[in-house]
Amino acid sequence: MICYLYANAGRIISRDELLSKVWKCQQTMTIRTGDQTISSLRRKLGDHAESPRYLITVNGVGYTLPKEMPFIGILPPWIPKTESAVY
Known about the structure:
By secondary structure, the protein is α+β, with helices and mostly antiparallel strands. The chain is built from three helices and three strands, in the order αβααββ. The model is unreliable at about 80-85 (pLDDT under 50).
């Protein structure tokens, strides 16, 4: 998930898009699964939903990462940085 969000930094990604692109719409995956994964990523990044620095929730729409990534050094170098990456 972080790879997809990172590759699309600055763009709001809907929950449905995350489910379809990251998990390929597997039957066992639900919107709640995506929410739980976001919560886990926030914990790992030291981010907080109340005052996010990295994983920003756009209420009723989805999630986004800032275009300028302050934590770029912790992401693997193989993550592509494109305007619109599709996995």
